[in-house]
Amino acid sequence: MNTNYRSLSKDDKNKVVSFVVKNYKNIPTKEIAEKFVVGINTIHRIARLNNLSRPNLQDFIINEIQNQILIGGILGDGNFKTNGKSSCYYRECHSVLEKDYLMWKNDQLKPMVTGNIVDIKARAQNQNNQVGFQTRNSPSFNKYKSMSIDNVIDNIDELGLLVWMLDDGWIHNSKIGFSMSYCVSGGSMTLEQKNKLKNRIYEVMAIEFNLVGKKSVDFRMYSRYNEKLLDYMLKYFDMSMDIMIKKFKTMHLKYKLGIRESPLL
What pTM value is reported for the model? Predict the structure, then answer.
């Protein structure tokens, strides 16, 4: 591992310097160091040599849409990372096949984000490239970083639930007939937390999910609620968005054609 500025080749050194000059104000030092596999002191040294400084940490006024995107992201594909003693930032990445969806999140979280989404190359040949974004470093995010899953469930609302469902959900097609239902991964939640979240979904959206699998691992919605879930999704997400096409195209087509699920399913 390169941990010293002088140990870099001339070409690598120029790449690091160029990146630091362009991104030092917006991207945490540790993340830049990890990106180029160098020591944190290397990045600090480059910053000093180029007279770079960071603005004071900014507090943000987080509106309810942004609040629900962040809360939904805790259950879904996002996470908060500590940076310094008194602040943290939010980051998230998705397959490049869900780029529209990530751009929507990035746009909704302005001016807290560091810029446009960035491309991330796949680590393996059988994986898709990814896209990602992150917010600026701020003490405003500390409350989210310290949220327990139970606290998240208590505070999650309609949009936050939909974000979680899009992040971690998929369509389950029945082997019998043309029936389909929506499933969502339960992740590392305890059974008690899953039941609590299941009740929260019904409280907020009047949609019933069941826990499925040998260990009640995942959530599966009763198919009689398909149209209702689709209506909720379309309140916030256009049907032309890549993730909506990926996860709801067939369901949307069925309801345009007037095909309905059995009320017993």
Answer: 0.77
